[in-house]
Amino acid sequence: MGHREITLPVTGMTCANCATTVExxxxxTPGVEAATVNYANERATVxxxxxxxxxxxxxxxxxxxxxxxxxxxxEFAVTGMTCANCVSAVExxxxxRxxxxxxxxxxxGTERATVEVAGTPDWSGIxxxxxxxxxxxxxxxxxxxxxxAEAEARAAEIRRQTRAFWTGVAFTLPLFALSMARDFGLVGxxxxxxxxxxxxLALAAPVxxxxxxxxxxxAWNALRNRxxxxxxxxxxxxxxxxxxxxxxxxxxxxxSSALGEHVYFETAAVIITLIxxxxxxxxxxxxxxxxxxxxxxxxRPRTARRVVDGVEEDxxxxxxxxxxxxxxxxxxxxxTDGEVLHGHSAVDESMLTGESMPVEKGPGQEVTGATMNxxxxxxxxxxRVGSETALARIIRMVQEAQGSKxxxxxxxxxxxxxxxxxxxxxxxxxFLVWWAVVGAGFTDSLLRLVAVLVIACxxxxxxxxxxxxxVGTGRGAGMGILFRDGTxxxxxxxxxxxxxxxxxxxTSGEPGVEAVVPGAGVDEQDLLTMAAxxxxxxxxxxxxxxxxxxxxxxxxxxxxxxxxxTAGRGVGARVAGREVWVGSRRFxxxxxxxxxxxxxxxxxxxxxxxxxxxxxxxxVARGIVAVADRVREEATEAIASLRAxxxxxxxxxxxxxxxxxxxxxxxxxxxxxxxVLPEEKADEVRALQESGSGPVAxxxxxxxxxxxxxxxxxxxxxxxxxxxxxxTADVALMSGDLRxxxxxxxxxxxxxxxxxxxxxxxxxxxVLLIPVAAGVLYPLEGLPDLLRSLHPILAALAMAFSSVSxxxxxxxxxxxxx
Length: 818
Hints:
Number of strands: 29
Low-confidence stretches: 142-148
């Protein structure tokens, strides 16, 4: 591999001994040849053997010693990659030659590289390393999309490919027509004159060295980096046909046919032109796979209307700061995330959530940047700007998912690593067997060698997974479904059990008081007053419902003190000198309250899917406040859809058994976990995983359910715009529609099915056609000569469209029924 020197920033050192410790730790690391640590500037300079240790491992050694290496993440576009071997070459270059790079991941489908850099990134040094390896780099802006620079780079690449292809056509068509006409005797004897061969050479040379120059350059860069890629195969195959034909043409002009009688300039030209066509179509199709992310980027408004001291001014969006007051008129996009100060309007959020119905917005409610204001004018206060907005985070999450590698790709990566050398070995063996063993003649053996080199397609292997991931995650983003990475996308297909948190997931999360049931000798208003006095300090949705009901009835809520809350059970406080408890039956019993007299009243409410809040003071149960959280309209349909897919659905709730089963029966759920405290939810998920219920998904609101979301094989957060949901969940649903869960699982299955189809095609194509090109079908005389002796031109045609077919199959995901 080689030797490399890297300088790492080290934090946490407090004295010279700390520097000595870090230095000793590094020097004792296998593969490290020298290490010096400067305590004054907090830098460690390390020389190491890249074949034994990498920079990321060095950083880990420093961390293991009790110090830290601060890192930054940098993402940029990489141009000039043509297959999986290019990806490996760029990754190796970044890890071993780019300054400060600890880890690198490159995605062929998105043509992007993500690197972890120690300290401040040396962008120019990274670019130089990539360019030295024969590729190009385009820096992205702060939000990761690269804007016009990357779009223009892609457009310029397509224009260049188009120009090269049509140049190839202009020279190849007359060359091919002349060659075929001569071979089939359609022209006179003049076509067999020696000068015609040189005329063909003149037509073929521009194709070989102008149209095909990219293949030569790519092959040289690959070989210089001690690897081999698709360019090596194309350059070797076409050059074999071309440079074999040159001495034959010279010998024929001298009157000798010792080297052969036929030139193959048209074969070399057609190979290059057809493969150039394939790369052009592939580039255009790959552009289509990123259409969804570009559509998200285009949602961002360019300007905002800021209001300062009553004066309106249009300013660039980049100039908007948190706290600015902005005016959004009907028909305009909301410029950034914010809170409504004045006005009422219907806001179309479909571009982010996938929900077609506009959402009513008024003072105090949140609006999201890039959504469309439909009816009234809104004055908002900016709460998040730039890379912190919901749209920016969505774009970042989709890009990270598109750039990730799911486990299913590992096999393709392993095969791609040895693919080209293996093909070259097969091609050489093919030539030797046909020439030395079969005795087919030098020219026929050479043609089979060329056919093997040209028909092999590592590109299809490299594109099989990333293009499907790109289209699948892009399709999901358009539906308000965000996958964190390719692993989550793959795991979602394997699920067997889906756990649904009740409150806020299958219910609206906005409970209301349905009944107030006082006990003997207690007035209904007094009961509600005492309960509201305790709950006014609580932030629990049930407590808020009690307070809201008291205010609606015009009750003046007294103050309370000594407030205590027990998570998942209830609350207590002192009201007018009395000790008051509000919560579950178990909570009251734990505090020494007798509950039997009100058991029947509570049971009657729980049988109606209502939660009974027990109220007690002075050690006596005084009554019940029955609260119900409305079941979402779409919940029954969503759960039926999950069960139709063969998934077991489990309802998880802190309610008692009777209330939980009442809700479950309403929804068609057959398995319930009731009276589960918030801190116990993760344990319940773990118990399901260990009980043989298979991979388990947890669906929650992403706030109270964070530990359970993390424990699940796939955590799915409803209303994915919240910070916790975006950070904790594997899948975030931007809307609160529970039907997004079966849609997400269907999208996962469709994407993984497409990946499998692509891999089967990529592997099958090469496994079947390379032997055909080598001539294994030649002994079968019943087959057409087309298959028995595959001409290199047909091999090039097959190779040209193999990767295009993989990308095209991935694009079908945009129209898949979910």
